[in-house]
Amino acid sequence: MTRGLSATENINVESIPRRPSVALCNETQLLWEMEVCGEEFKRKMDHVDPQNWCNLTHFISEYHLFSLCTETNAERINCYWPNPLVESYIIRIHKHFFSNCTLERVILVDPPDDTLTILILIPVFLTLAMIALVVWCSKRSDILA
């Protein structure tokens, strides 16, 4: 039976196990930290020619540091990463710097008929060969055993 507690009973509070405290995400501080990371990224991107903004090789280290900054700061203030606030900030950065980087639509073309025929026939013949091998081995099980 469980014992009820009343106000007249003396309880040793220190003996009651405590649940570990969970730090909550401070969203205001998170937004501030994202702004700090974003401003640093913008300063570094000022040194990259805008014509090269669509070529990742020209700013990969700056982008890596921006991503690392957002992740480190989010985790430091007990926020998970990525989260909706961080994602929306990163999307704003992308819209600012990379909105004109979309490629023309790639037109998909079927492979030549010879290539297509080979790609179809190889698995068909391999399947038939495996079936023939299984049947042949099952008929010769007395010799193989």
Automatic annotation (TrEMBL):
Protein's GO biological process: calcium ion transport; cellular response to hormone stimulus; G protein-coupled receptor signaling pathway; intracellular protein transport; protein localization to plasma membrane; receptor internalization; regulation of G protein-coupled receptor signaling pathway
Membrane topology, record value: Single-pass type I membrane protein
The entry's keywords: Cell membrane, Disulfide bond, Glycoprotein, Membrane, Receptor, Signal, Transmembrane, Transmembrane helix, Transport
Lineage: Eukaryota, Metazoa, Chordata, Craniata, Vertebrata
Entry similarity comment: Belongs to the RAMP family.
Entry protein name: Receptor activity-modifying protein 3
Recorded GO CC terms: cell surface; plasma membrane; receptor complex
Transmembrane segments: 116-137
Location(s), subcellular: Cell membrane
Signal peptide: none
Molecular function in Gene Ontology: coreceptor activity
Keyword field contains Membrane: yes
Superkingdom as given in the UniProt entry: Eukaryota
